[in-house]
Amino acid sequence: MNFVKTIRLRPLLASLLLPMGMGAVVGVFMLLMGKFEAYNALFKPPLSPPSWLFSVAWTILYALMGVSAYLVTTSDAQRGVKEDALWQYFVQLGINLIWPFLFFFFEMRLAAFVWLVVLLAAVIRMIVGFWFISKPAALLQIPYVLWLCFAAYLNGAVFLLNG
After folding, report:
1. In angstroms, rounded to a whole number, what is the distance separating the alpha carbons of residues 160 and 158?
2. Is residue 17 assigned to a domain?
3. Would you call 107 helix, strand, or coil by DSSP?
4. What is the pLDDT of residue 34?
């Protein structure tokens, strides 16, 4: 029995391009608007990583999202089941896209924290949907959940420390 699945390059590239492209656009926009410097000027809690680590972490997380979406898209699951799981994926991507605007651009730190909790719930729901289609796709999202928990700590602490 052959356990190695043939990689379909176009769906894989499309699955990677969406989250990584979204992250790149937000990152470039933040760089051009000077939001990284503004973040560096804030009081931050213990365990705050250096600013450059955020770009590395999000690049990895967006790549994992893309691979997960690819695994679900190319699975043998029923079309409706896949569509529901992918809908959950797109919803969490949309929620994810809004967070940096709340936190960095509008400086609504408390709203950003609440939004992050909503994002965490959406990601957990997505993982459950992925689990019934592809366990590896679901498991690839565990680092995302852990990072969001850490981001919630940072976001909440920045709100408390900076008013």
Report:
1. 5
2. no
3. coil
4. 82
With contact defined as beta carbons under 8 Å apart, do 154 and 45 qualify?
yes
pLDDT of residue 4: 56
Domain that holds residue 109: 34-39+49-162
Please give the C-alpha separations between residue 6 and each of 2, 3, 29, in angstroms, as whole numbers: 10, 10, 37
Please write the tens of the pLDDT for every residue from 90-137: 999 999 999 999 999 999 999 999 999 999 999 999 999 999 999 999
Would you say residue 15 lies in a domain?
no
Domain count, the chain: 1
Q: Which residues of 41-71 are buried (b: 16+ CB within 10 A; e: fewer)?
A: eeeeeeebeeeeebeebbeebbbbbbbbbbb
Burial class of residue 152, CB neighbours in 10 A (0-12, 13-18, 19+): middle
